[in-house]
Amino acid sequence: MDIISRCGYIAIIGKPNVGKSTLINALVDMKLSAVSRKMQTTRHRINAVLSLNNTQFIFVDTPGFQNKHHSLLNKIMNKTVFNVLSDVDVILHVVNACQWTQDDEKISNFIFQNNDIQKILVINKIDKLKNINILLPYIKNINPKYNYNSIIPISANKKYQLNTLLDNVSQLLPLRNFIFDESFITDKSERFLTSEIIKEKIFRLVGDELPYKCTVFIEKWQEVKNGIINIFACIIVERNSHKIILLGSKGQHIKKIASEARKDIEILLNKKIYLEVYIKVCKGWLDNKKLLHEFGYE
């Protein structure tokens, strides 16, 4: 029997802060990846599945390539990116509109070492351009040695041109039966998605340096008889000074983090929750292999 469906893995890669997580969330219309303007928001490989007509897209959101920080955590994150690219069918290289940097160049050089994988350049945040007329010259000036299958300008935040992007990706996917059930959305657990939501609130509400030195670990998840889920989430930081920043004056920061996270988690789970968020100081966790494994970093 002839296969009429297409199915495959699509890696979404790029330097930090180009909107990879925003894109994957927009494509599947569900908050799967922590989204923030700060670097290092996405720290795990996240699979999100979109089944549309006769095509199943399996998107893999990856950490941004890290050159700024050199902890064991960053090495693990970069290794995750390298591993992802070994078993995908299509690469979406996401860049900021009209901002081709050295980091973008390095990523292009890297992905074009493998000529067997189809590649699309995704120019994101075109809604931020003050003069849209500079976009076409920018596209024409991209180094000719990078032979992308196509170049698609989009706005992930405004969900502009996403159907065009999906159409282009679909044409590059192999003929294959669906791997996942059509109703399947992600391979990540509710605990993981909950920790991502809390992490997002931390990244949005506190200073620039702290997010690089904290993570969220769900210590207890308890479903009680009245349908409420009790969730106890621990924010791990490296120093007492980081704990003070997270707490804020009279505990205002941690209260706001918990309050905003609770609203999004209830939408995710479609249930009422009791959320308790607290902080523990764990010196050296960024370079502690045992602790990184315990906190879910592969």
UniProtKB/TrEMBL annotation:
GO molecular function: GTP binding; GTPase activity; ribosomal small subunit binding; small ribosomal subunit rRNA binding
Cellular component GO terms held in the UniProt record: cytosol; plasma membrane
Binding site for GTP: 14-21, 61-65, 124-127
Residue intervals of the Era-type G domain: 6-175
Topology versus the membrane: Peripheral membrane protein
Domain of life of the organism encoding this protein: Bacteria
Role this protein plays: An essential GTPase that binds both GDP and GTP, with rapid nucleotide exchange. Plays a role in 16S rRNA processing and 30S ribosomal subunit biogenesis and possibly also in cell cycle regulation and energy metabolism.
Membership in a protein family: Belongs to the TRAFAC class TrmE-Era-EngA-EngB-Septin-like GTPase superfamily. Era GTPase family.
Name of the protein: GTPase Era
Originating species: Candidatus Kinetoplastidibacterium kentomonadis
Lineage of origin: Bacteria, Pseudomonadati, Pseudomonadota, Betaproteobacteria, Candidatus Kinetoplastidibacterium
